[in-house]
Design brief:
Length: 260
């Protein structure tokens, strides 16, 4: 199996930047559905109401398809987070970067999906990724400093549980289940086929997202290369595209921002 894996994971597979582009495109499609099309379906007084009424089933189908396409994005981001954690030279800077963009993205996230500037009941995915990163960091510290292997494995459980609990209490996107799926992929990081298999099973049975499974084919084919250097583009894309989508909703008469 590992021999086959090494051939498939050759230089001909997608690089990290290719995976990021795939995640960005599918995420954008998903968010257009969630932020714009859903408002069109529920906004009876908007300028698009007559268009939607005349083709309601078509728009409804489009919404469902767009949301299902969007399920491909999160597994890729989870995998890239695990890869980034293993390869980064400075975990503190990595965590700080995720934390900063979690803050920067929160208001755009609230506006796009809640129509509010402040919405404490639902936090953006950067915070989920940050908590998963901190959990992986803690698990690695335990693994490194506890000499007895079985004890180290045992002590990693409360560290993982702490990260999942924090995500659940903070109401982050995907919450505890999202952190769990990331940690599964981290634990099995040393063998790609195990990582892909367990990751796919966790998305299927824990997040209940069967349409996310094709993303694991891209993960399996990943060639281990960084690819095009566009690091901050991918970070900034998240809050910027959410603001743009909310602006589109305002122009279409689908939303008006409120404070709470």
């Amino acid at each position: 199996m590992e021999a086959v894996s090494s051939v498939i994971q050759g230089k001909r597979g997608p690089a990290g930047s290719t995976l990021k582009i795939a995640a960005v495109v599918t995420m954008l499609i998903d968010h257009i559905g969630a932020a714009v099309v859903l408002r069109m379906l529920t906004g009876a007084d908007s300028m698009t109401s007559s268009i939607v009424r005349d083709n309601f089933e078509t728009w409804q189908t489009a919404y469902v398809v767009m949301r299902q396409i969007g399920r491909l994005a999160f597994p890729i981001y989870c995998f890239l987070l695990v890869e980034g954690f293993q390869k980064t030279r400075d975990v503190k800077k990595y965590a700080l970067r995720l934390g900063v963009f979690a803050l920067v993205s929160e208001i755009p996230f609230n506006l796009a999906f809640r129509g509010k500037v402040f919405s404490p009941d639902y936090q953006n995915v950067f915070l989920t990724l940050l908590l998963a990163l901190l959990a992986m960091w803690g698990m690695r510290l335990v693994e490194t400093h506890v000499g007895i292997k079985w004890l180290g494995l045992l002590l990693q459980i409360p560290v993982a549980a702490l990260g999942m609990t924090a995500a659940q209490l903070l109401h982050t996107d995907y919450a505890a289940r999202g952190v769990f799926c990331i940690l599964v992929m981290y634990i099995l990081r040393r063998r790609r086929w195990q990582q892909v298999l367990a990751g796919g099973l966790s998305f299927y049975y824990v997040l209940y997202e069967p349409t996310a499974l094709p993303a694991f084919l891209l993960i399996w084919l990943y060639n281990g290369e960084r690819g095009i250097r566009m690091k901050y583009f991918f970070y900034w894309f998240y809050p910027v595209h959410l603001l743009v989508l909310f602006g589109v909703c305002m122009l279409m008469g689908l939303a008006e921002p409120v404070l709470f």
